UniProtKB/TrEMBL annotation, chain A:
Membrane spanning residue stretches: 24-44, 64-83, 95-116, 122-144, 151-172, 178-200, 207-228, 265-282, 312-329, 341-358, 365-385, 391-409
Membrane recorded as keyword: yes
Keywords: Cell membrane, Membrane, Transmembrane, Transmembrane helix
GO cellular component: plasma membrane
InterPro entries: ABC_transp_permease
Protein name: ABC transporter permease
Membrane topology: Multi-pass membrane protein
Localization in the cell: Cell membrane
Listed GO MF terms: transmembrane transporter activity
Pfam families: BPD_transp_2
Keyword Transmembrane helix appears in the UniProt entry: yes
Protein's organism: Agromyces seonyuensis
From TrEMBL, chain B:
CC terms in the record's Gene Ontology section: plasma membrane
Translocase listed as a keyword: yes
Keywords for the protein's UniProt record, in alphabetical order: ATP-binding, Cell membrane, Membrane, Nucleotide-binding, Repeat, Translocase, Transport
Native organism taxonomy: Bacteria, Bacillati, Actinomycetota, Actinomycetes, Micrococcales
Keyword flag DNA damage: no
InterPro entries: AAA+_ATPase, ABC_carbohydrate_import_ATPase, ABC_transporter-like_ATP-bd, ABC_transporter-like_CS, P-loop_NTPase
Naturally occurring in which organism (per UniProt): Agromyces seonyuensis
Protein name (database record): ATP-binding cassette domain-containing protein
Length: 424, 504
């Protein structure tokens, strides 16, 4: 170690040296992914032609020779991984675009290999990804709002499930999906009320209340399903569903048109909600106060903001938004309510909140990524790849773990999230 | 606006924090509220600001009785407060912090940021300083953050402004600038309440002085009163403000710190290129504004810092890389800066707190079983020796006053066979009587031939104890100067001037 002397800056004050550290996490992950793909292609070689269909818009199918294309892609991936190593050695942080391009190409390479002599319907793959993401996006927005206000919303799963249940019930009774949607929001809010009351008023640990609520809602809806819905199925569990609405002009755009603009009302509502929350959180009085009580509740209190009331209503709002996500299960994807039909998606939404760094747009993108992983697994099962289907079922969860553990390690959430505000 | 408090009483359980306090502050006057830590100054101001509800008494503004249900009401009435711990949100910009709670909006609730920026600029311009309304508060130096607090209060047209211990985090020069701002506000007709326990500042800036002791007003004083008069009023008896000590007898060996660098777990440098020696029989005081690496320096010496490079030798033995246990066994005594977090277990009795680091010592345990009798006898001796005011060894440490808690920590550290004493903020939040006692014990320790490192942000304490002074700024030692260096020079060094003789 060399002898150190702090440098003097222009204004005559001391200036500390800055330590430069090399960060090899990203290059190592990229290299490992490249090597795994190369090994897969080497030991399970597949020949033939991979067909990618961009249906609907009059685009021709793309037919690619499987072996050649996948090896070319591996070569490109290797170059990208090497590039990130060079960056890291020179103390630069690997650029985000590099990681994203790598991810897209890696998925593409894998798809080429998996679809040897098969067909990848690109449009329906993406369409399905958006559809599967809808509950995740609403759940994640509910999580973002709750945590930004200082209450960790672990009860997203419960909000989704009760939302799905009440949507099915009300839509069946009234034959109107919009009333079902309102019912879903009420269901989500009910769960939030309990979470808010216990965590804000009675200062119970928020994570524990959230977990308990999830179990409670699972049990409650399971009981009501067995006791009410099953015996009276035609009356209570035949929800009228939302139909697809094709938006003229926009839906004619190649590829993304049919993916984004030939959806149901709830999906359009999702676009609007994401945009409004993303704007309002940073640009309105509501957003400023919401973030203030989640960052430094005492400071908010000293400027006359009622911390606990602000938290209470925002947690309720979070529940309403997550409830809409629940409605998607029974008013769009499946024609009736089923026991535990949310299947842990609420927790994936929670992961999207963290991976999305408590930001509405980033959380939405994270939710879309998880939705894509789920749909990819569906496709791979259909394509009949040599990889066992059980392994494929793990895919969305592996993506979740890698995303949260690998990339979200050092990010910082709202400072007061999870801490009740007790006036001294 | 004239502020009047009449007969304010505030109780917490059986403790009477404010006992029928009367206070009148007129417009265009700086009224100092002087009292020791725990005298009830902050409680009184929190009552005034609507954070607490008084049990008895009333608050009048221009002779009209006020009922504050929360800080919002107090602010609307024209009371502003510059908090000791800034009430600022670090991840918000200056403009966002200033407008929070009274945001101007346009259209459907959208924030009018442009207006808030303009507001910040215009208030700052009145006092002749510049501030970037779009800077994140967390990135600003502490002195500037305090100005944001002041702007925040003034932006809401505060007519009565309360400064709660505003100088605790400032360098002497920043303190002077703050006083200039306070005088300007006074001349513009604002009524100012200045809460402090620092006598020098009171005499410099106050127009009137009210002294509080144990929740009661014990007297008023003129700014012409001497330090000794104010101190005896504040403490209730005559106090010795200076520590008497002989010239040091320096021995050989001691602590040698070479090229020390401390990094946070995320790789940020917090202490860099630090070199100093402390010989047996001398006190090296580490001065500096809070948060300039002193905490991390101490943590490196006692072995609890995460990443340390360089060398720390005690009588020739390398301490870097050793376990905390090994470092303690080398004879390092450590008084941590926050006794409640690092110094004591509040729910343990005094007797257990006194042997926390010696539970394996044969004197206190045998075969893994604690020897209660020996512990109790030891505790009784220490309580007597260190004048700890407690019912007995079984009293829980958390129930003691700040000064007595600190004496428990000091007693534990000084009753071992020491070869180095490191005391961080040894008298923070401690009453004047205990300060005298603790300072005396530190000097005794020095005189018994032990090297002593005292870290303090209080310049008075540094000057009272130090044989030599190392000033830290942004993680580096700006310079090491003799103990009799002038305050002005030290102040410049605390602001980072590497060569104050030239700068001055």
């Amino acid at each position: 170690m060399t002898a150190l002397a702090p440098a003097e800056s222009a204004d005559g004050t001391l200036k500390l040296a800055t330590v430069r550290e090399r960060h090899f996490k990203v290059p190592i992950v990229l290299a490992a992914a490249t090597i795994l793909l190369a090994l897969l292609f080497l030991f399970v070689p597949r020949d033939g032609t991979s067909t990618f269909r961009f249906g609907g818009a009059g685009l021709p199918d793309a037919e690619l020779p499987t072996a050649a294309t996948s090896w070319i892609l591996v070569a490109v991936l290797a170059v990208l991984a090497l590039w990130s190593f060079v960056d890291a050695r020179a103390y630069r942080r690997p650029a985000l675009w590099l990681t994203i391009v790598f991810g897209v190409l890696a998925v593409f390479a894998f798809l080429v290999w998996a679809s040897a002599d098969g067909l990848v319907p690109v449009t329906s793959l993406l369409f399905g990804a958006v559809s599967l993401s809808v509950p995740l996006v609403f759940g994640a927005l509910g999580g973002v709002i709750g945590e930004r206000a200082g209450v960790v919303n672990v009860a997203i799963e419960g909000q989704l499930l009760l939302g799905a249940f009440s949507a099915a019930l009300l839509s069946s009774l009234t034959h109107n999906p919009f009333i079902g949607l309102v019912g879903a929001m009420v269901g989500g809010v009910l769960v939030s009320f309990v979470l808010a009351a216990f965590s804000i008023k009675y200062l119970v640990d928020q994570v524990i209340v959230g977990v308990v609520l999830n179990v409670l809602v699972t049990g409650l809806t399971g009981f009501l399903y067995g006791a009410l819905l099953v015996p009276n199925e035609t009356l209570l569990n035949r929800p009228v569903r939302f139909d697809r609405l094709e938006i003229p002009l926009l839906s004619d755009i190649p590829i993304i048109g049919p993916v984004l603009f030939n959806q149901t009302f709830i999906v359009y509502l999702m676009y609007a909600t994401v945009a409004i929350v993303a704007w309002a959180l940073y640009r309105t009085r509501w957003g400023l106060r919401l973030r203030a009580v989640g960052e430094h509740p005492q400071a908010a209190d000293t400027v006359g903001i009622n911390v606990n009331r602000t938290r209470f209503w925002n947690v309720s709002l979070a529940g309403a938004i997550a409830g809409i996500g629940g409605a998607y299960f029974t008013l769009v994807s499946v024609p009736q309510f089923g026991k535990e039909m949310t299947a842990g998606l609420g927790f994936i939404a929670l992961a999207a909140v963290i991976f999305g760094r408590w930001d509405p747009i980033r959380a939405t993108l994270a939710a879309l990524l998880f939705g894509f992983a789920t749909n990819l697994q569906n496709l791979l099962t259909v394509l009949g790849t040599p990889i066992p289907s059980e392994f494929m079922l793990m895919l969305p969860y592996v993506v979740t773990i890698v995303a949260v553990a690998g990339f979200a390690g050092q990010i910082r959430g709202p400072a007061a999230a999870g801490k009740p505000y007790i006036k001294s | 606006m004239k502020l009047e408090l009449r007969g304010i009483t505030k109780r917490f359980g059986t403790l009477v924090a404010n006992d029928h306090i009367d206070l009148t502050v007129r417009p265009g006057e700086i009224h100092a509220l002087l009292g020791e830590n725990g005298a009830g100054k902050s409680t009184l101001m929190n009552v005034l600001y609507g954070l607490y509800q008084a049990d008895e008494g009333e608050i009048l503004l221009d002779d009209v009785t006020q009922h504050f249900r929360g800080p919002g009401d107090a602010m609307t009435a024209g009371i502003g407060m510059v908090h000791q711990h800034f009430m600022l949100i670090p991840v918000f910009t200056v403009a966002e912090n200033v407008m929070l709670g009274h945001e101007s909006t346009k259209g459907i609730g959208a924030l009018d940021i442009a207006k808030a920026r303009e507001h910040v600029r215009s208030v700052a311009a009145r006092f002749g300083f510049q501030i970037d309304p779009d800077a994140l508060v967390g990135d600003l130096p502490v002195g500037v953050q305090q100005r944001v607090e002041i702007i925040k209060a003034l932006a809401r047209d505060a007519k009565v402004l309360v400064f709660d211990e505003p100088t605790a985090v400032l360098t002497p020069q920043e303190t002077d600038e703050l006083m200039a701002i306070m005088r300007q506000l006074r001349d513009e007709g604002t009524a100012i309440v200045f809460i402090t326990h620092k006598l020098r500042e009171v005499r410099e800036v106050a127009d009137r002085i009210t002294v509080i002791r144990l929740g009661k007003v014990v007297g008023e004083a003129e700014p012409t009163a001497t330090n000794a008069e104010l101190a005896s009023l504040m403490v209730g008896r005559a106090v010795e403000l200076t520590v008497s000590k002989e010239a040091p007898t320096i021995g050989e060996g001691g602590l040698e710190v070479r090229d020390l660098r401390v990094l946070t777990p995320t790789g940020q440098i917090v202490v860099d290129a630090v070199n100093f020696d402390v010989r047996p029989g001398e006190v090296l005081a580490v001065a500096g504004v809070q948060g300039n690496g002193q905490t991390e320096l101490v943590e490196a010496i006692v072995g609890i810092a995460a990443r340390v490079e360089g060398s720390i030798r005690l009588n020739g033995t390398e301490l870097v890389g050793q376990s905390v246990k090994a470092i303690l066994d080398e004879g390092v005594g450590f008084v941590p800066e926050d006794r409640k977090v690092d110094g004591l277990v509040g729910d343990f009795p005094i007797s257990e707190n006194l042997i926390l680091d010696r539970s394996a010592d044969k004197a206190f345990s045998r075969g893994g079983t604690l020897r209660r009798g020996a512990m109790e006898a030891f505790a009784r001796d220490r309580i007597a020796e260190f004048d700890i005011r407690a019912q007995g060894p079984a009293t829980l440490a958390g129930t003691l006053s700040g000064g007595n808690q600190q004496k428990v920590v000091i007693a534990r550290e000084l009753s071992r066979d020491l070869r180095l004493l490191v005391a961080a903020q040894p008298t923070r939040g401690v009453d004047v009587g205990s300060i005298e006692f603790i300072h005396k014990r530190i000097i005794e320790t020095r005189d018994s031939g032990i090297p002593v490192v005292v870290v303090s942000t209080e310049l008075d304490e540094v000057v009272a104890l130090a044989d030599r002074i190392a000033v830290m700024y942004r993680g580096a030692v700006v310079g090491i100067v003799p103990g009799d260096t002038s305050r002005e020079t030290l102040g410049l060094m605390m602001a980072g001037a590497a060569d104050p003789e030239v700068a001055a």
